[in-house]
Design a protein that fits this description.
0% helix; 4-stranded antiparallel beta sheet; mainly beta; single chain; 7-stranded mixed beta sheet
Length: 115
């Protein structure tokens, strides 16, 4: 069983930056993919960014050019660098690790962007 713990959220002004981290209690090397999701109040959870063990990276259109996902297998940590933040980025951000037959979620970290 792997536990994922997000950190790095907070309150930031529009145009600012935050770096989210997702630390795993075990190895993330076995995860075929890792993702960042977000959920704003009253909205469905949204896939923001994905990174695959093959090296492929995907982003939702609304964050392309502003967010960067990365993973450090040696540190068992997933990152999300968020630049040029907008009020519409306000949400709880979750990390997810997936491998065949299992997936793991963190508890979430709040990101609030003020205008």
């Amino acid at each position: 069983q792997v536990q994922l713990v997000e950190s790095g959220g907070g309150l930031v002004q529009a145009g600012g930056s935050l770096r989210l981290s997702c630390a795993a209690s075990g190895s993330i090397f076995s995860f075929n993919r890792m993702d960042w999701y977000r959920q704003a109040p009253g909205k469905q959870r949204e896939l923001v960014a994905s990174i695959f063990s093959s090296g492929i990276i995907n982003y939702v259109d609304s964050v392309k050019g502003r967010f960067t996902i990365s993973r450090d297998n040696a540190k068992n940590t997933l990152y999300l660098q968020m630049n040029s933040l907008k009020p519409e980025d306000t949400a709880v951000y979750y990390c997810r690790g997936w491998r065949p037959l299992s997936e793991y979620w963190g508890q979430g970290t709040q990101v609030t962007v003020s205008s």
